[in-house]
Amino acid sequence: MQQAAKIVSITFTVIVCIAGSYAVFPPSIKVCSRNDPELNRCITESVNDLRPRLATGKISDEFRIPPLEPLALSTINMDRGAEFKATFSELLVSGPSKFKIDNLKVNTEKLIYDFNIFLPKLSFKGKYDLKIKLLLLNIAGVGDLTGVIENNHARVKLMCEKYTKDGKDYMRVKKLLVRIQIEKGRFDMKDLFRGDPVLSQAGNQFINENSRLFLDELTPGLERSLSDTFKATANEIMQQATYDEIFPA
């Protein structure tokens, strides 16, 4: 699920650098003037145009980032108390490079970035370990996981601030708000109920027939995970350049 955090991190970094004419970015990135009366539209188009390069991670011969296709993820833990504990690991995700951003609003004076991300379809496989209560049924298991989630929307609002280090001004994320909507999903978890084939099939069927409830249980933990992961990742990236380098006078 952390694929969205990485997408948000990369997207935000590109947005900041495009808006600020970041000098080290290659000519393959269309730079938008800070005085452009349609700055929000210009940045949105620039980021969306970069999607094929973001998929491979090759922005130019000299400039590379981790590829979005496929996206390998580390362990994700979710804990909503005794009735919902889940761990997902060794995840490999296909489809994140199809993201689109829209409704972007940039306030360069207050350092506020507000935008939508849409992900049409994400297919994933990996490992799971969960113990949940869904309606009146207790479901538990450890094994292989495959699945698809479709029509994924995220609204992201970032509030940044300047700070001084070694006599120079830098920028960091002060607060991040993210709200996620997943329209539908389908999951296949092997070895539910300790591998009992009948109960495992019944458990998967029950989860998929009640996928809305399952996704609603996942969403709050996912939002917290995205917020924490993205904030740390974005701040790690932004500390590499001073505020004046990102937003030259």
TrEMBL record:
Pfam families hit by this protein: JHBP (PF06585)
Gene3D superfamilies: Haemolymph juvenile hormone binding protein
Keyword Signal: yes
Keyword annotations from UniProtKB, A to Z: Biological rhythms, Signal
An annotated GO BP: circadian rhythm
Protein family (similarity comment): Belongs to the TO family.
UniProt name for this protein: Hemolymph juvenile hormone binding protein
Native species: Anopheles minimus
